[in-house]
UniProtKB/TrEMBL annotation:
This is OB-fold domain-containing protein. It comes from the Bacteria. Coiled coil: none annotated. PANTHER family: BLR3430 PROTEIN (PTHR34075). InterPro entries: ChsH2_C (IPR002878), ChsH2_Znr (IPR022002), NA-bd_OB-fold (IPR012340), Thioester_dehydratase-like (IPR052513). Pfam families: OB_ChsH2_C (PF01796), zf-ChsH2 (PF12172). Residues 168-200 form the ChsH2 rubredoxin-like zinc ribbon domain. Residues 62-127, 206-268 form the ChsH2 C-terminal OB-fold domain.
Length: 294
C-alpha cells in the first residue's frame, strides 16, 4: 500500500530573513559577499546571528570577503537533478572565500571533475540581475590559469650568401657543406666561416644525402609538413659531415625510429623543386645495419 503526497506552499513559503541574513542577501544584490565578525574576531560566511562555536551574539561588523576562494572539498554531480543550479555536470563544493573563516557551499562549473580538487581557486559568476538570493551567484568557476592565443607570423627570410648557396644546391638535389681548412670540420648547411676556429670556408663540397640519426623526438601535435601523427623529427648526421641537420623522418612507424638508424633523403620530383628545404620530403630508413655514433 503506497500513498503519494505532495507538500507544497502555493505561491512559495515566505519567511523573514532577520537583520543578519538580510544584510548578506542585500549585499549579494550589489554583487558583494559579506561575512560577519564574531566577538572572537572570526569571520562567518554566510553570516549568522550567533557564533556557533560560543553561542555568543555576533558583532555588528560586516566584512566583505572573496569574491575568489579556495575549494576545500567537493563532490561531483554527473547527472544534475531538476532543482540543481546547473543543467550540466558540476560539483558541489565547500569554498573558503578569501578573508572568511568558514566555508560556503556552492556549485562549481568546472567542466571536468579533473579540473577541480581541494586547493583549486574559484571565482563567482554572477547572474545578470541579482535579486538578493544566494542564486545571485550562478555558480563558481575555476580561476583562469591558461589562455589559448592564435599565433601566426608571416615573415620573409632573405637568404644570405651561404644559405643561398646551400639552397641552390638543394634545388639541384644535393646538400652542400663546407670543410674548414684549419680544423678539418665539415659543416652542413654550408657556411662562410668555421664556428669553432673562425676560419673562412671558401669552397663548398657536395655531401651525400644519406646519414645516421643521432637523436630524435616523437611529436604528437600535427604539423603540415609531417606525414602523419605521431611523427618523428630527428637530428641526422649526414655522411662525411661533423654537424647534424634537423629533418623529419618518414616511411617508418614512429616507434621503430632509433639512434644509429641509417636514413636517406626522400626528394620531391625534380619538376616540383624550388630553392627550399621543402624539396626534402623527409628522410626514410635505408634498411642498412645501424651505425655506431661517434
Ligand atoms: Zn675550423
Amino acid at each position: 500500500m503506497v500513498a503519494r503526497h505532495v507538500l507544497e506552499f502555493p505561491g512559495g513559503y515566505t519567511r523573514t530573513t532577520g537583520p543578519v541574513i538580510g544584510r548578506f542577501l542585500s549585499e549579494l544584490r550589489a554583487r558583494r559577499i559579506v561575512g560577519v565578525r564574531t566577538r572572537e574576531g572570526r569571520v562567518l560566511v554566510p553570516p549568522l546571528e550567533y557564533d556557533p562555536a560560543t553561542g555568543e551574539p555576533v558583532t555588528g561588523e560586516y566584512v566583505e570577503v572573496g569574491p575568489a576562494g579556495t575549494v576545500t572539498t567537493c563532490a561531483w554531480v554527473e547527472e544534475p537533478l531538476d532543482g540543481h543550479p546547473l543543467d550540466r555536470p558540476f560539483a558541489w563544493a565547500l569554498i573558503d572565500l578569501d578573508g572568511a573563516d568558514t566555508a560556503l557551499v556552492h556549485a562549481v562549473d568546472a567542466g571536468d571533475p579533473k579540473a577541480l580538487r581541494a586547493g583549486t581557486r574559484v571565482w563567482p559568476v554572477w547572474r545578470d540581475r541579482p535579486t538578493g538570493n544566494i542564486t545571485d551567484i550562478s555558480y563558481f568557476v575555476p580561476e583562469v590559469t591558461k589562455i589559448v592565443s592564435n599565433v601566426r607570423t608571416e615573415y620573409r627570410l632573405q637568404a644570405g650568401g651561404a644559405l643561398r648557396v646551400f639552397l641552390e644546391g638543394v634545388r639541384r638535389g644535393v646538400f652542400l657543406g663546407g670543410r674548414c681548412a684549419a680544423c678539418d670540420k665539415v659543416y652542413v648547411p654550408y657556411r662562410l666561416s668555421c664556428p669553432q676556429c673562425g676560419n673562412a670556408i671558401p669552397e663548398t663540397i657536395e655531401l651525400p644525402d644519406t646519414g645516421t640519426i643521432t637523436t630524435f623526438a616523437i611529436n604528437n601535435l600535427p604539423d603540415p609538413r609531417a606525414p602523419e601523427v605521431p611523427f618523428v623529427s630527428a637530428y641526422i648526421l649526414v655522411d662525411d659531415a661533423d654537424i647534424p641537420m634537423i629533418a623529419l623522418i618518414g616511411d617508418v612507424p614512429a616507434h621503430e625510429v632509433r639512434q644509429g638508424m641509417r636514413v636517406k633523403a626522400v626528394w620531391v620530383p625534380e619538376g616540383e623543386r624550388t630553392a627550399s628545404m621543402a624539396n626534402v620530403r623527409w628522410f626514410a630508413p635505408t634498411g642498412e645495419p645501424d651505425r655506431e655514433l661517434p
